Fold each of these.
Amino acid sequence: MAKKNKGGLPSAFLLDARLEEVLCQLLKIDSAEWSATKALYASGTAWSRCVIPKKKGVRIINPPSDPLKRVSRALLTQMLQGIPVHTAVHGAHPGTSIVTNARVHAGFAKAFYLLDLKDAFPSVDRARMRANLGPKLLTRVSEATDIDPQESQRLVDVLLELLLVEDVMPQGFPTSPAVLNIVLGPVDREISRLLREETVRENVTYRYTRFLDDLTITTDANEIPKSLRQSIRKVIRHNGWTIQRTKLRYYGEAPEGDEERTTKMPEVTGIIPHPDGRLTIARGRLNRFRGIIHGLLKEADARLAADAEALAKVSVQMEEDVKVFAAAGKTLDPTLSPDQFYARDWPLTTEEHDLVAGIVGFVGMVYDGDLPAIIRKPYLEAKTRFRIGMRHLSGGRGYRVALTV
């Protein structure tokens, strides 16, 4: 547990003026932002808590308040993104995405092993973060400043504190996906080494990628042996992670009674990689996407036609959204104020806009303009009418929204 002084401020934040100046220079923030961030921590308002229902249980999201969000983004760009991650990483890393992750396996894979880590973000506690990330941050601080080792460690303690909520890594902070990629490095390296040894021994090629907490192992052979699958799970467990058993999938040849085997066409983070190199989305999911987009288009029509009840409902929601976003200093669109964002020719709530933007962005990236007929018309209408651009997909949030429906 983080130590705090009488005012509720984490003890790590108690720096002298010179070290505070070095911290601000390190993160490329001004002293006013740092002072405001400390005030948020002292008042207990540095982040909020949102509970989002899942199919089983709930997901806790802790969005940071401004200016902590700006400080977090600075920490991400100035410190975390400079730390190397394994070549298997796709997602929350420049030049990678849910599509690049799936593309590695398209035109290659005949057998698939798909794993998902259970509660990956909150599994990164203070001890794990200090052990895995601490030394890397210390190297970064030492190389970027001229302060002595003890002072560098004090700044590392501050940076680690900025990555935690109640001693675990939160979902909702801009920094969390990048931290997850770094602390999962030992798993990435051990699985890659295991597959390389199997390749040498059996003369069979394997490929491994990870999109945040989703792991994909494929081969150009017809089978991933059960013994190898057991070894992969052992690597994950021995590194202190838990596998989500309900999402464990193996597609390939297997002996009778193999409980992991499925005959369902494998999806790599919601995308089907085909032997001919194509990427597609399952028809059932495309049908759901089409239905959602069509429903939102019809709903917008009803509201604009002055359906009194529908229009009143969305107007109240818009007003609440504007108040919440304005109070937190957040932006719905980089080019518009919250009031301007809603002063347009379509009445959608923020949640509805996030949903349709996620679907449009996800479909667009997978098909890269060559849209299937089943969704082409509603896709193009929604993209134009709801003014959806790539900015709505920053951080992969749109993909996650789309894949939950």
Amino acid sequence: MHIWIDADACPNVIKDILYRAAERTGVALTLVANAPLRLPRSPLIRSVQVPGGFDEADKWIEQQVQPGDLVITADIPLAAGVIAKHAIALNPRGELYTQDNIRERLTMRNFMDELRGSGVNTGGPPTLNQADRQAFANQLDKLLSRRATAD
């Protein structure tokens, strides 16, 4: 397993959880972003800077991901591509994207996009709170524990 992080929009507190998890479990992780990132010194943690542009990080991650890898993203189209490649997609709030829920998420995302395109202010997601951070950490631990059991 390799952990890929769609880092442009990933909250720093979630990145910190991932850094600690990588060190604890020995799982390599790569952050992909349009801008340079500050990372802790670790042979397990690296970053890739992709060219600026719409969805460049998403495209790069989708090209690199392998079956069984874990991708951290709030981007639903990227999550759909990851699932299609038999990898795992988890959002920073701890929601696991699956074959069973991704189509519904894509439909809702597209609907909201149409509303915004017609001028309706749909607002943004609520601020990441402690419960969200805990849900993410718990789901990440479950996924990494399954990996350890499979090895």
